[in-house]
From TrEMBL:
Keyword tags: FAD, Flavoprotein, Oxidoreductase
Listed name of the protein: FAD-dependent oxidoreductase
InterPro entries: BBE (IPR012951), FAD-bd_PCMH (IPR016166), FAD-bd_PCMH-like_sf (IPR036318), FAD-bd_PCMH_sub1 (IPR016167), FAD-bd_PCMH_sub2 (IPR016169), FAD-linked_Oxidoreductase (IPR050416), Oxid_FAD_bind_N (IPR006094)
Domain FAD-binding PCMH-type as annotated: residue spans: 1-164
PANTHER family reported in the protein's UniProt record: BINDING OXIDOREDUCTASE, PUTATIVE (AFU_ORTHOLOGUE AFUA_1G17690)-RELATED, FAD-BINDING PCMH-TYPE DOMAIN-CONTAINING PROTEIN
Gene3D superfamilies to which the protein is assigned, alphabetical: 3.30.465.10, 3.40.462.20, Uridine Diphospho-n-acetylenolpyruvylglucosamine Reductase, domain 2 (3.30.43.10)
Presence of keyword Flavoprotein: yes
Family: Belongs to the oxygen-dependent FAD-linked oxidoreductase family.
Keyword Oxidoreductase: yes
Source species: Amycolatopsis carbonis
UniProt GO molecular function: FAD binding; oxidoreductase activity
SUPFAM superfamilies: FAD-binding/transporter-associated domain-like
Pfam families tied to this protein: BBE, FAD_binding_4
Names of required cofactors: FAD
Length: 435
């Protein structure tokens, strides 16, 4: 059954219906919440709950569960404010934020989107509509911000905005044959940059689609992406050493209004059949750089559409004033592999991404950014969060969702279902509980 909710009352009714029939609940705004199949579930679609209200004086936004980032960016910009949005304007605010929210525009200076949530309105498995903040429901508030959709259905959330009207940002694209030069230059450059500079490195093998810029159409290229919250003059000076590494085939870096920041990554906004997985790297020494070049560089036979290495650090490493369940602080890099193709090519797409991530295994951390996980990684929640954080999440789950209604996700199992063994979690802790 699919319920297209228009209000919190609709969500309460859907949860009560699911509880009466011992069915799981899956929430869908956009793809960030989706894991696995929904056979036998009650699917709650929240896209109609997309109201956005900006408090210019308090510098906050209150948004419905179905809002996407393009809607929030547009409304906030009218007041000279900006959110910690993602790279793609069509991504849903709620799923992105519940998974931490790694903003490629302002994140290095402000941290995760989850760090700046003031409150949430949610419907828990008992059908209750709750206002959740640090005072009213402190453990649930901690778990929701980083624990994904394991604990409740979010109907609205309130979070901080920042006084940013413009950025100096965009991408510099180089011939793919210069990958080694560009990668090594960027790796040496970015650690010394201020926290107001966010940057990433990408290897692109794009198809000959007419909507792509001509230099990138059907080409193998590497790209450096930048978002600098400062003057264009300072930004131009900062990235000058990278512009000098090799002749660019396309340079889109410029001063821009914040409403145009989606152009920095320039990701597709129309639906595509794709497969992606991401890992976090503990370090990226010269040996790891060599390995990445072997895996996706000019001599590789990979078909990977996008390989992205995002440099973290800064505020992403710092605990917020009100701590949350985000598990990836202190890890310096996020590595993402994206393949695109029809369902008939599913196994090949997965094999291609696995070759990249498995090849970087010597430098990867067990902890992961849950927004970049693949469906088949759902059983790894204990490793993804780390044992202490997972145990706390499982205790919150036991309190608010003891029957594991919200289990079609990267599942945290209620604590009562965990059989504690020395150094390990039992299989019961890794499997959804049936109704």
């Amino acid at each position: 059954m699919i319920v297209v909710a228009q209000s919190a009352a609709d969500v309460q009714a859907a949860v009560a219906f699911a509880a009466d029939r011992h069915r799981p609940v899956l929430v869908k705004t956009t793809g960030h919440q989706m894991v696995g199949t929904a056979h036998g579930a009650v699917v709650i679609a929240t896209h109609r709950m997309n109201d956005v209200a900006i408090d210019a004086v308090g510098q906050t936004a209150r948004v419905g569960a179905g809002a996407v980032w393009a809607e929030v960016v547009a409304e906030a910009a009218k007041e000279g404010l900006a959110p910690l949005n993602g790279s793609n304007p069509t991504v849903g605010v709620s799923g992105y934020t519940l998974g931490g929210g790694l903003s490629p525009t302002l994140g290095r200076s402000h941290g995760y989107a989850a760090d700046h949530v003031h409150s949430l309105e949610v419907v828990t498995a008992d059908g209750e509509l709750r206002h959740v903040d640090a005072e009213s429901e402190p453990e649930l508030f901690w778990a929701l911000r980083g624990g994904k959709g394991n604990f409740a259905v979010v109907t609205a959330l309130e979070f901080a905005l920042f006084p940013v009207a413009r950025l100096y940002g965009g991408g510099i694209y180089f011939p793919g044959e210069r990958m080694a030069d560009v990668l090594r230059a960027w790796t040496a450059w970015h650690p010394a940059t201020p926290e107001t500079m966010v940057s990433s490195f990408a290897v692109l093998r794009l198809p000959p689609l007419p909507e792509l810029p001509e230099p990138l159409r059907g080409a193998f290229s590497v790209a450096l992406r930048f978002a600098y919250n400062g003057t264009a003059e300072d930004g131009e000076r900062l990235i000058a050493p990278l512009r000098a590494v090799a002749p660019a085939i396309l340079d889109t870096v410029r001063d821009m209004p914040y409403t145009e920041v989606a152009s920095i990554h320039d990701e597709p906004t129309d639906p595509l059949p794709y497969y992606e997985r991401g890992i976090m790297l503990r370090e990226f020494p010269e040996q790891a750089q060599d390995r990445l070049i072997e895996l996706v560089g000019p001599e590789s036979d990979t078909t990977m559409w996008i390989t992205e290495l995002r440099a973290l650090g800064g505020a992403w490493d710092r605990e917020p004033a009100v701590p949350n369940a985000v598990a990836t602080r202190g890890l310096p890099y996020s590595l993402l592999g994206v393949e695109v193709g029809p369902l008939s090519q599913e196994q090949q797409l997965k094999k291609s991404v696995a070759a990249l991530l498995d090849g970087m295994e010597p430098w990867q951390s067990d902890r992961r950014l849950v927004n970049n996980l693949a469906p088949e990684e759902a059983a790894d929640a204990a490793a993804i969060y780390g044992p202490e954080r997972y145990e706390r999440l499982a205790a919150v789950k036991k309190t608010y969702d003891p029957i594991n209604m919200f289990r079609i996700n990267h599942n945290v199992v209620p604590a009562s279902s965990v059989l504690r063994l020395p150094g390990a979690l039992s299989a019961a802790a890794q499997q959804p509980i049936s109704g």
